[in-house]
Amino acid sequence: MSRLQLGLGALLLMLSAALAWQIQGWRYGRQLAQLAQAQAAAEATRLLVEREQRQALEQRLDESETRHFKELADAQQSQARLRDRLATADLRLSVLVERDTVCSTVPATSGAGGVDHATVRAGLEPAHARRIVAITDEGDRGLMALRACQDYVREVRGGP
After folding, report:
1. Residues 132, 93 contacting (CB under 8 angstroms)
2. Taking a C-beta distance cutoff of 8 angstroms, is the pair 133, 83 a contact?
3. Residue range 95-116, pLDDT digits in tens
4. Which of 4, 40, 80, 82 has its Cβ near the most Cβ atoms within 10 Å?
C-alpha cells in the first residue's frame, strides 16, 4: 500500500468516526428532547390537576362561607326580632324560682291552674332581659365563627 492509500484510509476512517459521532449526538439530542417533552407534559398535567383541586377547594370554601354568612344573618335577624318583642312587652323573659325561696311579692304563675306543685316563675326586668339577649347573641356569633373556622380547617386539610 502506498502512502496515499494509507492517508486516504486514515482520512476515511476519521470521517466515518466523525460521522458516527455526529449521528450518535443527533440520536442522543432527540432522546433528550423527547424526555424533556415527556417531563413537560407530566408537569403540565400535574399543574392542571393542582389547579382543578384548588378551584374545587375555593368553590367549597365559598359555599361554606355563604352558608355561614346566611346562618349568621338568620341568627342576627332572630335576635333582632327577640329584642323587638322584648321592647314592646310582647314577650317577657322569666326564670324558674325554687318554691322555698319565693317571697310573697313575687307573683306565682302556674302552668297547671293553681296546683300546689306548679312551677313558680319570676319575670325579669326588661333591661336585664335585653342584657341576657345581648350576651346570648354574642355567644351565638362566637359559636358560629368557631364552626366556620373549624369547617375552613377541615376543607383545607381535605378531611372530615
Report:
1. yes
2. yes
3. 788 766 555 555 555 544 555 5
4. 82
Q: With DSSP H G I counted as helix, E B as strand and the rest as coil, what are the percentages for the chain, rounded to 5?
A: 75, 5, 20
Strand partners, 94: 123
What whole-number distance in Å separates Cα of residue 83 and Cα of residue 25?
Answer: 85
Alpha carbon 103 to chain centroid distance?
53
Apex CA 27: angle with CA 25 and CA 28, to 5°?
65
* Cα 72-81-85 angle, rounded to 5 deg: 155
Q: pTM for the full model?
A: 0.54
Q: Shortest CA distance to 121 belongs to which of 98, 97, 99?
A: 97
DSSP character at residue 148: H
C-alpha cell at 39: 417531563
Q: How far is CA 28 from CA 16, 17, 37, 133, 152, in A?
A: 18, 16, 14, 79, 51
Question: Do the Cβ atoms of 160 and 133 come closer than 8 Å?
Answer: no
The number of beta carbons lying within 10 Å of the beta carbon of residue 151 is 16
Report the distance separating Cα 57 and Cα 64, nearest Å.
10
Q: Could you tell me the residue ranges of all domains in the chain?
A: 3-111+119-157
